[in-house]
Amino acid sequence: MKLLLTDSGVKNARIQDALVDLLGKPIAESSALCIPTAGYGAPDADPGGPWRFISGRSPHPMTGLGWKSVGVLELTALPSIEKASWVSWVRETDALLVNGGDALYLAHWMRESGLAGLLPSLHDTVYVGLSAGSMVMTPRIGQDFVGWKPTAGGDSTLGLVDFSIFPHLDHPACPENTMASAERWAAGIGRPAYAIDEQTAIKVVDGAVEVVSEGHWKLFNPTS
After folding, report:
1. Which of 18, 123, 100, 103 lies closest to 65, judged by CA?
2. Which H or E run includes 217?
3. φ and ψ at 140, to 5 degrees?
4. How far is 36 from 203, CA to CA, in rounded Å?
5. Between 73 and which of 33, 101, 145, 222 could a Cys-Cys bridge form, CB atoms 3.0 to 4.6 Å apart?
6. How far apart are CA 2 and CA 19, in angstroms?
7. Cα(first)–Cα(last) distance of the chain, in Å?
8. pTM summary value
9. What is the pLDDT along the chain (224 residues), one digit of tens a residue?
């Protein structure tokens, strides 16, 4: 699977160029499925958030980029429908656009729905994450970002990449997300970790990591 892990969607030309490169064709010739699920799990969630994401009215550009087609894949619905149907939808699409919200809630429903088990086999699919949609691919998010709590506790996510992500660096709406806070958070993660702002994304292809940015970011490596 090809990953484009964004902080706030496709916010600038460099991130959009990276998306087109991963797709191997123009966005206008590509199909997408959007996954709004994480937007329901955050402590401050409201029903308008998933609607804005699905409809392209969000300030975080994802579904409104001019795709050839966009469908909705709601993870909470998948356990109640024929697996062969939704698996075929996923395998046939060019991109998965995954909403922000709560990363642990999203991880729970990725596992419960069966999508988490399918993801490693999607070699040509482009996964585009937004905030929590990006963080869910990491091994853990750190206690600072725990909102919705799984029954088993902890802060573990899917671990499909080997680094963690501190999002919304120095964003006016998240005044607590300073570089100093990111450094303290990273010290407790115990693995490579990136602090990224809204103009930054992380591109991952076959394990190779590339930061795509017109903004600010920092890589923290664990001390020995």
Report:
1. 18
2. strand 217-220
3. -160, 160
4. 21
5. 33
6. 10
7. 31
8. 0.95
9. 999 999 999 999 999 999 999 999 999 999 999 999 999 998 888 899 999 999 999 999 999 999 999 999 999 999 999 999 999 999 999 999 999 999 999 999 999 999 999 999 999 999 999 999 999 999 999 999 998 998 889 999 999 999 999 999 888 888 888 999 999 999 999 999 999 999 999 999 999 999 999 999 999 998 64
